[in-house]
Design goal:
GMP Synthetase, Chain A, domain 3; four-stranded mixed β-sheet; three-stranded antiparallel β-sheet
């Protein structure tokens, strides 16, 4: 999570909640869903969401017995979304660090939700690693999702499987490299030219 954005907006929880709602503008979320998806304590999420409602940035409606929240459409939303949904260099460094804590990365590529142009690809993150801990990797991805406010589609391959997919012109791999992407780690020169 970007410390700069947290300082600008007053708290990391507020930034995470805004990112979640901005990244899913057509969706309604309960307070429990917001707290879970942003990995925020429920009391903190309640305080932040109430502030955002008071500022007219978030709409609050009742569905049955529970309140649901959605980003409020306004002329400020496009620039706010542009600011909050872009991935800073600091966040990219944190992504590499989180993935590296669970996998011995040979290649790490970001695309999809990580890029401003949001290319229509099958995965947002491509990881090539001969050695990784599945539980730790899922936890790392979950932490990244919480800070981004969006689900991440990812694929993990061994070097051998990745090379095979390149050789057969696998669509998933081709899509990543045919559309805009950002190579964060490439220890063995594996990326497609």
């Amino acid at each position: 999570m970007s410390d700069t954005l947290a300082k600008l907006f007053g708290s990391q929880a507020r930034v995470k909640i805004l990112r979640l709602l901005l990244a899913n503008q057509n969706s309604f979320f309960t307070l429990d869903e917001i707290a879970k998806r942003t990995r925020t304590q429920k009391d903190t999420a309640r305080k932040e969401i109430n502030l955002l409602v008071k500022l007219s940035l978030v709409d609050k409606t009742k569905e049955g017995r529970v309140f649901v929240y959605k980003i409020s459409p306004s002329k400020y939303m496009p620039p706010l979304a542009s600011l909050l949904l872009s991935t800073s260099d600091e966040e990219v460094h944190e992504i590499v660090k989180k993935i590296a804590s669970s996998a011995k990365i040979d290649l790490l590529v970001l695309t999809g939700v990580f890029l401003p142009q949001r290319p229509p690809v099958s995965v947002d993150m491509l990881i090539v690693a001969n050695s990784y801990n599945d539980r730790k990797l899922k936890n790392a991805i979950s932490a990244i999702e919480a800070s981004l406010g969006k689900e991440i589609k990812y694929a993990v391959f061994s070097v051998k499987d990745f090379q095979y997919r390149i050789d057969i012109h696998d669509r998933l791999v081709r899509d990543v490299f045919d559309y805009p992407h950002q190579v964060l780690v490439d220890k063995k020169g594996l990326q497609l030219k």
